UniProtKB/TrEMBL annotation, chains A, B:
SUPFAM superfamilies found in the cross-reference section: Winged helix' DNA-binding domain
Keyword DNA-binding: yes
GTP-binding among keywords: no
GO molecular-function terms, A-Z: DNA binding
Designated name of the protein: HxlR family transcriptional regulator
Membrane-crossing segments per the record: none
Protein origin, superkingdom: Archaea
Residue span(s) of domain HTH hxlR-type: 12-110
Keywords attached to this entry: DNA-binding, Transcription, Transcription regulation
Record-linked Gene3D superfamilies: Winged helix-like DNA-binding domain superfamily/Winged helix DNA-binding domain
Length: 125, 125
DNA sequence: CGGTATCCGAATTGATACTG
DNA sequence: CAGTATCAATTCGGATACCG
């Protein structure tokens, strides 16, 4: 069986799921938006090392996949807010599982894991 | 927090997990080896479109990550068998979750999903 | 503030041919 | 049978500069 969406072809739904969350900065974006609505500049601060082009690209892809929403407020200076959708929230338990597995793989104590680098200390799970 | 393994750097354990299962053919390989031990040529038959170079590369990476084992039998003609490890088996429930989410994303009935293309009809889950 | 546009190097994937 | 080697094509990721 072959699956298709948005002109892309998958041999297995797992591939499709990985295509949605597999971008370089997407896990970090999803962790960040899991709790809060955030502005572009806030995301950029929470994700060290990302540049505007890549952050924009990954946000637009997640938006196109129905995982998050982008709301533009017609003000000066402009304000744009990103929020996770209900559908996007269904990814969070899977991310938790991936996080736990990844911690095992890395040989670290899962309880010591701060999922999002800039959210350490906010408490886990 | 920054995590390191094999010279690679991750900002989050999720990235590490995705690095392990995120290769283009890896989900298919893992489904295939989830049930059975298989030879190289069997895998190649089960995964349409892959060429020997890519299949070799992805298998070696999964082996290096401790997800599967590679056993060479010193016979003529040569025989090489690949099998999932106990650690690799811990990925399978996560793959199931990714598969279910991917089916939702693709807008198809999860019950209709055959996880591995060439294993359709063997029964699901 | 929240982006685009351009250019570029690095990494990934693939087709094809050959080998112990 | 189970790969390697080589080369080509594509995609991805990033630095920098500019714009409404």
């Amino acid at each position: 069986m072959i699956y298709t969406k948005n002109g892309k072809t998958y041999h297995c739904p797992v591939e499709a799921a990985l295509d949605v969350i597999g971008g370089k900065w997407k896990p970090l974006i999803l962790w960040a938006l899991g709790d809060d609505v955030m502005r572009f500049s806030e995301l950029q601060k929470m994700i060290p090392g990302v540049n505007t082009k890549m952050l924009t690209k990954q946000l637009r892809e997640l938006e196109a996949d129905g995982v998050l929403t982008r709301t533009v407020y017609p003000e000066v200076p402009p304000r744009v807010e990103y929020a996770i959708t209900d559908f996007g929230k269904t990814l969070l338990p899977i991310m938790e599982a991936l996080c736990a597995w990844g911690a095992q793989y890395l040989g670290i104590d899962d309880a010591a894991v701060s999922r999002c680098p800039t959210k350490a200390g906010k408490g886990k799970a």
